[in-house]
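hey can u check if this looks right to u? its 245 residues, i copy pasted from the old doc so theres a chance i mangled smth
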Amino acid sequence: MQIDTKQHTVNIFVPCFVDQFFPNTGINLVNVLSNVGCSVNYNVEQTCCGMPAFQDGFWDHSRDVAKKLINEYDDSNSVVCIDGACSAMVKKSYTELFKEDILQHEVKKFQKRFFEFSDFMVNELGVTDVNAVLEAKAVYMDACKAVNACGIYEQPRKLLANVRGLKLIELNDDTCCGFGGTFAAENADFSDVLATSKADLIYKSGAEVAISSDMSCLYHVQQQMKGIDPSIRFMHIVDVLAQKK
């Protein structure tokens, strides 16, 4: 489906984790958006949304990082992010972070044009079919922040429903994978228990591929899956939608 590129010039925000460890997912984001007619801008100066510092209570530092991000995308175009947790940080936690700040009005304007990827595709562009092809049985692994803070549930499923050859199996599980940003580092043993439980559910579902909107969640569960069935693939939804014949 093609759209008017003049009306849909978009900025992309590539989270730290993706930028450092999974750069091809960022490239696929550009490809998917370009293929539906968007003109894509990427600011090479962008860094972090400020979530790690916010979670650990360093709000002054988090606020400085957040201001940098807002200033880097100070035009009127939408900002598309491929991570539910970072999207939740911007769209929800920034409200608390800037509650008594003089930039509160600017922050609200930024929040209104900041979108999680699948939400932008489905609800802003009206695109649910990108002619992707992936012959596999798959589960979609909902990310806590994406669902609870951003309302991301139906959007990725609408996109995946139109992937040729993909059979989507519902996990019927809403428990956390155990990553939770700095939680995984500060509570490693408990975090691993949660990830192992999630990996076991995926294995028992018979899925060949696990898909999510959050690469950090995928990576965390994948490490535990290596001891159960290393043949199961873990893919970000952007990487799935970039698959062609």
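Confidence is low (pLDDT under 50) at residues 1-6.
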